F420-dependent methylene-tetrahydromethanopterin reductase (Mycolicibacterium diernhoferi), 453 residues
Amino acid sequence: MSKPVKQIHLAAHFPGVNNTTVWSDPASGSHIDFASFVHFAQTAERGKFDFLFLAEGLRLREQGGRIYDLDVVGRPDTFTVLAALAAVTERLGLTGTINSTFNEPYEVARQFASLDHLSDGRAAWNVVTSWDAFTGENFRRGGFLAEDQRYSRAESFLAAAHTLFDSWSGDEIVADKESGQFLTTGSPGQFSYRDEHFDISGRLDVPRSPQGRPVIFQAGDSDHGREFAARAADAIFSRHGTLAEGQAFYADVKGRLDKYGRRPEELLILPAATFVLGDTDAEAADIAHQVRLAQVSPATAIKFLEQLWNRDLSDHDPDGPLPTVDPIVGENTIARGRASVRMHRDPVAVANEWRAKAEAEKLSTRELIIEVTGRQNFIGSPSTVAEQINTLVQADASDGFILVPHVTPAGLDPFVDKVVPLLQERGVFRAEYTGTTLREHLGLAAATERVTP
């Protein structure tokens, strides 16, 4: 029996915390003006995408004691942006990254229930943790949690939020016109949740929303993160987008579902991916090369180098070989901020891997940084990119992709105009929305059918 053809899921990531935006491009616009968010969201909806995705930065990143000048400076509040976008879109899902380390379950559950109501069932929550005290300085709790404690708190946080979301389920509310009162058959919104992290009880003041609960995303890649996703998430924002790595990650995470009584289709794997289009594959490759040169200037290459070496390398020649000295092991004092550095458990080992690669391929420092900091790319003509995406999805390397354009806000337009129609012609991507909620777009069961983790 032949394997059924999978339908591709597509989403759009509005770049905020990133190193992919090409600021020098004349088409590059604001990352904070609401008009940019509107253009981006409406383009994604025109392309029948599942959802728009917002990352989160809770503090401006720093390097060498100065605000990190290679990144977006400023990030509007996630809930504010998504609530506003709910008014200018009709079907597009609205996914926000909200931290479980520095927030409280009642507050977050109330906000997501409100967003789900405002959007008629299109809300999703990307549950993340944070470890660094630098970000934690903005909050009372600070950044003191070890990895296992962060995920323990995240799991408790999500279970508590689910208790709140479910606190209205089963309670029928009837308006009595004679008395002018609302009568209920139960105790709507009443909740109680206690464990090692939380001791809360009260009454949620937002009725059960259209989806019951928002769609839950998870973005961690550690073993704890994968287990958390298998137990409690509806989708994973993954970084494994190539064929071999994607298939390995896909098999590993979906292989964990059975012990939680879940089926493979209940958890979607959606890697992030950039794309560059051209009229021909050769033209696209040339454009992609220029894009990477713009993304990793000589100064940027040195910044990336300092993040691993954990030392001032401002005098290093970006067109020369890698430093001969080893990285300084221990607390990173050069770069500060949750997403400011690529975290490496063994910086010296990584440095040696980079040296071996640079020597074997005869790469300068800048050329090496361009190679090792690139994420999954789709590069080619529209037909080539459509084929690349479909091949990976049908091969179970992913269930779709979250696309990250290098120009904001109009960078998504060429993909929607040129690639989406080809996927629709193949019958692997929707021509029209058939549902109204994000759960329906993603093929997920109603929240009432899920068991609270």
User: Anything to note?
Assistant: The chain has two domains: 9-167+194-281+375-449, 297-372.
